[in-house]
Amino acid sequence: MNNFTFKIPTDIRFGKGQVECLPEELAKYGKKVLLTYGGGSIKRTGLYDTIIRLLEGFDVYELGGIEPNPKLTSVEIGAKMCKGKNIDVILAVGGGSTIDASKHISCAACYDGPAWDLMMDRSLIKEALPIAVVLTICATGSEMNSGAVITNEDTNEKLEINSPLLYPSLSICDPTYLYTLPPKQTAAGTVDILSHCMEQYFQHNDEAYITDAISEAVMKTVVKYGPIAMEEPDNYEARSNLMWASTVGLNHMLTVGKGGAWSVHPIEHVVSAFYDITHGVGLSIITPAWMKLALSEETKGRFARFAREVFGVCEDDDMIAAQMGIQKLEEFNTGIGMPLHLSEVDIDDTCFEKMASEAIRTSGLSERAYVKMSEQDVMKIFVLCK
Ligand code: NZQ
Ligand code: ZN
Hints:
Blueprint (H helix, E strand, L loop, with lengths): L10 E4 L7 H6 L4 E6 L3 H5 L1 H8 L4 E5 L8 H14 L3 E6 L1 H13 L6 H6 L10 E5 L11 E6 L4 E6 L7 E4 L9 H19 L7 H23 L4 H14 L14 H12 L3 H16 L5 H12 L6 H18 L16 H10 L13 H10 L2
Parallel strand pairs: 1-8, 2-3, 2-4, 4-5, 5-8
Antiparallel strand pairs: 6-7
Helix pairs in contact: 4-5, 7-8, 7-9, 7-11, 8-9, 8-12, 10-11, 10-14, 11-13, 11-15, 12-13, 14-15
Bound molecules: 5,6-dihydroxy-NADP (NZQ) and zinc ion (ZN).
Zinc ion binds next to helix 7.
């Protein structure tokens, strides 16, 4: 097992009604709150009214309209508000997009230059405002990790900013908030959680047995409860298991002792930067194609283990088991209404070359990934899932 450090400063409050702790917890940081949210779902579900009631007595400033695949422009507006109003704490109510924009805002608010500088050079992140989160969609794990993915519309880049200063201080995870998710978002979140586990699981270090075993448990949880949440949106058992799976899936617990660069996410991030598709939808399309390309005599053992442990494949031959696992994953994705082809989201081959080159340039795919990939390999993946 590789050496590792593991420190997560986020206070998680999980379960029904946990939002009531907000006034007491936020007061620890001050009175001036920047409330951030997305395109309006929190107003439709009534959560906005609850939050406003709980924030009585605070000075509340609002930044709504944060877009899925959040844009640098929103970050810049938020940072300007924080500086102008001397904000004490950011309260992000929403999913990965709102939380990620808030994370970038939190450090841009404490920096004198352009917000994008901090993406290009993380050593410039010296300070950040505290962030509290009320999570409304489970997918990214952003509620308990230090990363944020932001799109620069001018350069077509979707990149990750990361710093220990960006962990939320508090995250309220109430599974009942997931009941109102549109089926497509439940499905996309489910695929995303599974993908986070897979990115960390498909790495060379086999001695981190405990990490792989926890990962398999999380993946089995997703495979069991994803379809149930699709069928029964207000099934608390399904929603609560998925919600915790998303947090554990990307709070670095599943990477300890392993490491290595991710394979599918860097490719998806480029696709969603170029075409603004939903992150989980992109992953659903690209993951099976990546698996087909990455499967070889050298990797078949791990792919077979994945097939047997996660999808219960009973087959002694590793190569056949591995192939069955890929098929099971495809069936799982389509079973929850997710696509397997770029054409299903109106993407043709126009930008394949540009996207492949960008994926290699912005990631560790060619140097540190489980199976090292070249630009030509990424092109092959696009062709496989076209
Ligand atoms: O914007 P509103 O109106 O709130 O609607 C949202 C949005 O349209 C809606 N929604 C959220 N909660 C809802 C709801 N609708 C009804 N009821 C609710 N309870 O769902 C849509 C998607 O929301 P979004 O925040 O975009 O989803 P998600 O959490 O999947 O975040 C995706 C973003 O996170 C990035 C992705 O690339 C993408 O930009 N990621 C962030 C990561 C991280 N910080 O660690 C890692 C991930 O791999 C990922 O890259
Ligand atoms: Zn993801």
